[in-house]
Amino acid sequence: MLWETVKLALKAIFRNALRSFLTVLGVVIGVAAVIAMVTVGQGSSDQVTSDVEKLGTNILMISPGQARMGPGSSNAASKPFEMKDVDRIAEEIALVETAAPMGSSSATVVYGNENYRTQITATDSRYLMATDWPLIAGRNFNAAEEKAGRAVCIMGETVRLELFGSGDPVGQKIRIGAISCEVIGLLEPKGASTFGQDQDDVVMLPMRLFQRRIAGNRDVGMIYVAVRDGASTDAAKAEIDSLLREIRRISPGEDDDFNVRDMKQIASMLTGINDVLTGMLSAVAAVSLLVGGIGIMNIMLVSVTERTREIGIRLAVGAQARQVMMQFLVEAVVLSLLGGVLGILLGLGLAAFASNLMSIPFAPDPTVVLMAFAFSAVVGVIFGYFPARAAARMDPIEALRHQ
Amino acid sequence: MAEDEDMPLIRMRGITRVYGKGEAEVRALDGLDLDIRRGEFVAIMGPSGSGKSTAMNVIGCLDRPTGGSYHFNGVEIARLSHDQRALLRRNFLGFVFQGYNLLPRTTALDNVELPLIYKGLPPEERIARARQALQQVGLEGREHHDPSQLSGGQQQRVAMARALAGSPEVILADEPTGNLDTRRSVEIMQLLTGLRQENPDLTIVMVTHEDDMAAYADRLIWMVDGKIARDGRPGKAA
């Protein structure tokens, strides 16, 4: 009997295909929006996670200033690191594979008639080892260059394209601000980072050169640490923490004036923001599902009135109120489910398209798809109930007389 | 269904049907007493407003009387609920209306199947019985026509097939020829009388305002003011 009713509902729906389609459009859009939001959100979360894994889950970043921000934090007053801090971390902590200093600034680089504003990263040879970043031409900094702060640099692919086009920069002299500098290496292209930043838009200088000629001090802005394979990052963090407290003479009970973050934390922070955004957008999209439901109710009410005579005929040949109610309820649910299925397909299609465009993984979530399906059925039941009841309560004589 | 020898299929006593209240009160039926025996072909006539359609609706369990008692097949049904009356219609009654009342955009076969769906018959049996009913009214070959593709007479025959398909005890026809020309009307009446020859137990109650049609019945009831004014053989009554 239920199958009969479903078949009947399908017949009624396809008898007026265009109107049925317009009726469920609200549900289609609502479901599609929710599915697309959640799928793209999931994809970008996955992307962040995999990006961070590529960066290395064994990477720690130490920066001056308290981890806690907001009122009462003394970020500005925190003492910067020095070169010897980096060396002590690298040498004294067994769990640490290597540590590299990092300073950054931006500057205009000039070659011939070309000039280009780019990111300056001051570091030493350990940085490329810690991050596993290979060179495609030339070589890394050597110890003499680092010690003397010689004017040499390594450049990223984007800078090369800007200054040299397709030419080979290694061995050429470029000007960085006031420094004339020999290009000794070219980095392998890495593409955009999780933050959407072009990682190849960079020129690397020895730390000492940067301190002397650009920053004018002996500060190290940040320390980059690679933990040994298989070693616990938490244990390494604890040891770094106590070493730095000792170096920076922080008495027990006082808060750290630096913070050590690992990539996992950064990843979870980013995916957290991502999840909140996805949730909020999905909630907005869900509102359109509600509006879609009201659209279904409206058309079902019209349909009940239009089909008054049909209801009368059915009652005359022996349909019970319950059966008439079922017919209209099933029709509303089938209509809404059709909308749901269309919406799921459309949503997944949009998500696939958007994922491709944003070059993030396409991550359809079966749970969400199932939930959207169930939700559209619920919409059908809720918004179909009132019209169905109106149909079931009709008086057969009145209904048969209806023109 | 233990039926008393003397108990007619339909027995109505003091049936009233009142619409509205107070000043606006209309007594469509005002103490109707009516017995109809199994196998009778009864025509009901009367001026408009005489209550013949209301009587038909009460007999057909589409409407509930305000007062009085109505035994169908020995069972008191005047106080049955909405759904119980639906069951009665489903199992014992078949309707033919003046305006055919077929489902639009639905094939003849599907229309005839309709009561059988509510009876809960399996699809194969439904189709077989619907085809047979269409054949009985001379519409074989038209099973897949929409009402809009059929003439008035053909539509009314589909309606008759629908009424017959459920193997009812009583066929209730409310001005079945009201929308048809004389030739089609005669065809319908011949069909009705033919059905009775095949099944002498089939009871037919028909409301009409045409003497020619009433002449096909074996009993004519003339109603005035919600009561029976005359009851006898057609021809003499008119």
TrEMBL record, chain A:
It is a multi-pass membrane protein. Residues 283-396 form the ABC3 transporter permease C-terminal domain. Residues 20-242 form the MacB-like periplasmic core domain. It is found in: Cell membrane. It comes from the Bacteria. The keyword S-adenosyl-L-methionine does not apply. One of its GO terms (molecular function) is transmembrane transporter activity. The chain crosses the membrane at residues 21-40, 280-304, 328-354, 366-386. Keywords: Cell membrane, Membrane, Transmembrane, Transmembrane helix. One of its GO terms (cellular component) is plasma membrane. InterPro entries: ABC3_permease_C, MacB_PCD, Macrolide_Exporter_MacB. Its main location: membrane. Belongs to the ABC-4 integral membrane protein family. This is Putative ABC transport system permease protein. It comes from Lutimaribacter pacificus. The lineage of its organism: Bacteria, Pseudomonadati, Pseudomonadota, Alphaproteobacteria, Rhodobacterales.
Automatic annotation (TrEMBL), chain B:
Residues 10-238 form the ABC transporter domain. GO terms for cellular component: membrane protein complex; plasma membrane. GO terms for molecular function: ATP binding; ATP hydrolysis activity; transmembrane transporter activity. Keywords: ATP-binding, Cell inner membrane, Cell membrane, Membrane, Nucleotide-binding, Transport. InterPro entries: AAA+_ATPase (IPR003593), ABC_transporter-like_ATP-bd (IPR003439), ABC_transporter-like_CS (IPR017871), ABC_transpr_LolD-like (IPR015854), MacB-like_ATP-bd (IPR017911), P-loop_NTPase (IPR027417). It comes from the Bacteria. Belongs to the ABC transporter superfamily. Macrolide exporter (TC 3.A.1.122) family. PANTHER family: ABC TRANSPORTER ABCH.1, IMPORT ATP-BINDING PROTEIN. This is Putative ABC transport system ATP-binding protein. It comes from Lutimaribacter pacificus.
